[in-house]
Write a structure and sequence with these properties.
This protein is of the alpha/beta class. The protein has 2 domains: about 5-115 and about 305-315, NAD(P)-binding Rossmann-like Domain (Rossmann fold); about 115-300, Dihydrodipicolinate Reductase, domain 2 (2-Layer Sandwich). Helices cover about 30% and strands about 20% of the residues. It contains 10 helices and 13 strands. The chain has helices at about 15-20, 40-50, 60-70, 100-105, 115-130, 150-160, 185-190, 225-235, 250-255, 300-315, and strands at about 5-10, 30, 55, 75-80, 90, 110, 140-145, 170-175, 195-205, 210-215, 245, 280-285, 290-300. The strands form 2 sheets. The chain has a 7-stranded mixed beta sheet, with helices on both faces. Helix 1 (about 15-20) crosses helix 10 (about 300-315) and helix 5 packs parallel to helix 7 (about 185-190). The longest helix is centred in the middle third of the chain and has 15 residues, at about 115-130. The radius of gyration is 20 Å and the shape is globular. The relative contact order is 0.15.
């Protein structure tokens, strides 16, 4: 018998992608609200309480309201908003995050889907703070760029439908007040004493992202080597299906100078994993300068949103983890 799933907010970017991933599956029955009753609070509450699992693809306040409407204790919930990512009683929906996390997701009634930037940052940093290679009180900076789809319908419309007189910039920094909504979950899941300095940007391409953590190794307690960071990440994700660490040979090939003395990494394309639930991690180091760059490559709409939600859904319903992915 198929499991019933209601996507509350299925018309949004993440909701549409989740629906697309689930629509052809025989083990899932998608339940939608009658368009004529979309604004009927009783009908919505009925659906929220009448399915096996609800996926919330809503703004934070609306997600909190939806959770409050669920009175049936048997209903499982995945919240794709920011509302519950550090809330008590909610399991963080990054199965690869730490030992036992996959089992915690599988046994949970309430799961908070991670943010896209957070997924990359936490994947890089958490294993290193956990084993002490990076101290939890270290000053951490995170640089990242995402496709414009991460900004929702308004930003998508702005980038895809040029308006006369409006900038056609190829790259745009944002989060300049230094209070991005992903920072609390990054700090919490990595056990950091201080909030990391997060510098996000959006590029004029639809989807895909690169998240990077630059490190002055000489300034860190113990002065770890880049090789040690690579070994720790490789051990942390050994055997994982969706999270992989680039091997030393691949990293060395990418580091070879291609143009000028500084070189560049042409193959590190933010769109390379689009349409997948995969994430690839890299450790680039310079032993002479005692510096390193930790880099995560993923699809902001895949492992960073809809793919992660489907992975969590599969675990919570006791289905094969990679189904639909």
């Amino acid at each position: 018998m198929a499991h019933t799933v209601f996507i509350d907010g299925e018309a949004g970017t993440t909701g549409l992608q989740i629906r697309e991933r689930l629509a052809k599956r025989r083990d899932i029955e998608l339940v939608s609200i009658d368009p004529a009753k979309r604004k009927n609070a009783d009908e919505r509450k009925k659906l929220l309480n009448g399915v096996d699992l609800v996926v919330l693809c809503l703004p934070d306040d609306a997600a909190k309201e939806a959770v409050a409407l669920i009175e049936n204790d048997a209903v499982k919930v995945i919240d794709a908003s920011t509302a519950h990512r550090v809330a008590p009683g909610w399991v963080y929906g990054f199965p690869e995050h730490a030992p036992g996390q996959r089992e915690a997701v599988a046994n949970a009634k309430r799961v908070s889907n991670p943010g896209c930037y957070s997924t990359g940052a936490i994947a890089l940093l958490a294993p290193l703070t956990r084993v002490g290679l990076i101290a939890k009180d270290a000053p951490i900076t995170i640089n990242a760029i995402s496709g414009y789809s991460g900004g929702g319908k308004a930003l998508i419309a702005e980038f895809e439908t040029p308006v006369p007189g409006r900038s056609a910039d190829a790259y745009r920094s944002y989060g300049l007040p230094l209070a991005h909504k992903h920072v609390p979950e990054i700090q919490a899941r990595c056990g950091l004493t201080h909030a990391p300095l997060f510098a996000p940007a959006v590029g004029r391409y639809a989807q895909g992202m690169i998240v990077e953590i630059p490190l002055q190794l000489w300034a860190l307690a113990g002065m770890p080597k880049a090789e040690s960071l690579h070994e720790a990440l490789t051990a942390a994700y050994a055997g994982q299906r969706f999270v992989k660490v680039a091997d030393s040979e691949t990293t060395a090939r990418l580091q070879k100078a291609r143009a000028g003395a500084g070189g560049y990494v042409a193959e590190l394309d933010p769109e390379a994993l689009n349409g997948t639930n995969a994430m690839q991690l890299f450790v680039f180091g310079n032993a002479e300068r005692q510096q390193a760059r930790l880099v995560a490559l993923l699809d902001n709409l895949g492992k960073g949103a809809s793919g992660a939600a489907v992975q969590n859904l599969n675990l919570m319903l006791g289905l094969e983890e990679a189904s639909g992915l």
